[in-house]
Amino acid sequence: MNRTNAQAVVRLEGLSKRYPNGVEAVKSLSLEVKAGEVFGLVGPNGAGKSTLLKLVAGLLRPERGRVLMEDRDLTGQPAEAARWIGLMPDPLGVYTDISCREYLQFFAKVHRLEGEKLAQQMAAAVDMLGLGPWMESEVESLSAGWQRRLALGRMLLLDAPLLLLDEPAAGLDVRARAELLEIVRGLSGIGRTVVISSHILPELEELADRFGIMNEGRWVEVAPGRTFFDRRELKAGLGGSRWRILCADPAGARAALEGAGQTVVEIEGGVVFAADDEEASRGLEAVVRGGGRVMDFRRLDTGLADVVLRVLNGGES
Amino acid sequence: MNALYWLDLRVRVRERRLWGMPLFFLTMPLLIVMLAMATSLKGREAVDPGEVGIMVAMCAIFCQAGLLVILSPLAAAQRISQEREQRTYAALVNSPLGPGAIARGKLLGAWAFTLWLGVLTLPFVLAATLWGGMETWVPLACFGLNLLAGLTLCSLALGLSGLFGRSLSAYLASGALLFLWCLALPMIGGLTLGLLESGHEPTLGQLRSVFCGFFLHHPMAPQIWLAMRGSGAVLTFTDWGVWVPLYGAGIWLLLMWAGYGLAVRGLRREVY
């Protein structure tokens, strides 16, 4: 496939979806995702994230709007879309009474992969996902994390340029989550475009090039990763940066900071307060002057969770 | 080979319970055939092998028909709904297989099971012909019709399975279909005949209409016609001509097509 980084892999034009029960889950959404980009989809439960991913994969038919994949109209055509788009749905279902090798062979057959190409694709997917030791094991015997890897293997076999991952880290422990996200990072590294929906925001924050915050079926905000956090007005909305002082006498530090006009939250072994750089420096001086033995002083990063909450609460234009 | 059929074969061959089934299928017909033989021979000094043969063949044919009619739809009833229930359906739809290919793969898997059941019980039907009393082609034709009835019920159950998201609902729908076709319609037909006969002698046209509407498409009716004709018994409808089994088998083929169409329609539904 001949793509450059400037090209949009997928373009959504005014997608709307109303379910038979009358709920309008997606309201006139448009979006362009570029080749090789990792797009993070965030928002509260019921925001319409899964519906949007199913619309893109053709599993749902929109009332209005189109899904264009490199200018091909794939709207509501799952079999055609499957040549270009791999979907890992949530909740994830895998065939459990076959071996991992048979699982991958089955989807290879479905996609008419055979011979040398099948061997190469299978070896590459197994190698990337570390599935080698499990290939002859029954899928049922795998943990949730390995089952998710296997499902990713299905998508890797296809060579689909766009991967849609709906809550890929749901239900995984910290280690499995980190490993899975490392794999997603690897996918981006080999040029796959990834749209990932997740509630595990700290990981997504590191992973995504761009974020889209959804609420009630609409975009609330779509912006590139770093600028998203660094915008001044957003920080102002959050009350400046947050600072943490760890010290021997948190109560004394709290009194000193409050004396300097700060609003302070006492935590175990220290205090947290919100201030700009200059105010934070003055606050630290006040604590030291008050005799507090400071062991650690640092700015706490504004996390994606903070930003999302703030935006959803209407604190951000 | 259809990828879904390939997957289905792999799963079924490995299923241990499936291998326990031959025992059941070999035991039940064996028991029934032996009882039939004992009944035919009891208290007789001179045994007519032909008479015994007819009894044994009838028992073998209808035992096989019963097993196929009851078990075939059960084997097909969850094939699509289970994909929805186990959440594997989205991955299946997110593939180049269209609804037609998915339905064909599922249908082939269900049919393979029915053929497997048929082959297991075939020895009893064949053994019945050794006694004579019935021409060899009659039990074999009945065997073919039994298989066709089983395949038809598979298609119908698969079609119903495509409409439901839960296997239990799909099973209940298949059970309701079996009840309607095998019991309710013949009962209604019988009552209708009774009503017709209570006032006056029904005309041939009326009789044929009632038989065509309620009886002749029953999953065992063509076999009954064939077996009766083969044994020389004369009943109302046995002298109506060869169109009787052809009518039944023709309706089955239509229903088989309808079942497939229903499955394809169900697979076109959106994946919520």
Structure description:
The complex is a heterodimer of chains A (317) and B (272). Chain A is α/β, with parallel strands linked by helices and 317 residues long. Chain A has helices at 49-57, 78-81, 100-110, 115-129, 144-158, 174-189, 201-207, 225-230, 232-237, 250-259, 277-289, 304-312; strands at 8-18, 24-34, 38-42, 64-69, 72-73, 85-88, 162-166, 193-197, 210-215, 218-224, 241-247, 264-267, 270-275, 294-300. Chain A is built from 12 helices and 14 strands. Chain A has a 6-stranded mixed sheet, with helices on both faces. A 4-stranded antiparallel sheet of chain A has the order 2-1-4-5, with helices on one face. A 4-stranded antiparallel sheet of chain A has the order 12-13-11-14, with helices on one face. The radius of gyration of chain A is 24 Å and the shape is globular. The model of chain A is unreliable at 1-5 (pLDDT under 50). The model of chain B has no long low-confidence stretch (mean pLDDT 86). Chain B has 272 residues and is mostly helical. Classes of the chains: A alpha/beta (317), B mainly alpha (272). The A-B interface holds A 19, 54, 57-61, 78-83, 85-87, 89, 91-98, 102, 106-107, 109-112, 151, 154 and B 1, 3, 6-7, 10-11, 14-15, 86-91, 93-98, 270-272.
